Amino acid sequence: MPDINEKIAQLENFIMKKCLWQFHSRAWDRKRQNENILGMTSKLLCGESVDTSRPEDKCYWVDASHLAESYREKFDWLSGMSNDEIRELMQALKERIDFVTVDGSLNEELKDPRY
After folding, report:
1. Separation between Cα atoms, residue 63 and residue 58, nearest integer Å
2. How many domains are contained in the chain?
3. Residue 19 scores a pLDDT above 70
């Protein structure tokens, strides 16, 4: 079974190759998307309910549902993890995606306050 860094890399690789939601044009949009989609994905992977009462939440839920389903299909090691381990993994993944898409990005337009 891969260690946590290998797991994060595998999940990140899937997002970077298969998901378009991480390419919003503003840093705050990207952070909000990362928080909501990966947060919902974590809940879905743990068998928890997700609030979709707002239209915006329904959009996040669609991406989270696809991601959770894809992760279950592609990464069988997820089934051997406890809910606490999944939450920890998904939080670390969110931090990594935040770094890759916002905090460590060389795209200066992300930080332009007029954009």
Report:
1. 9
2. 1
3. yes
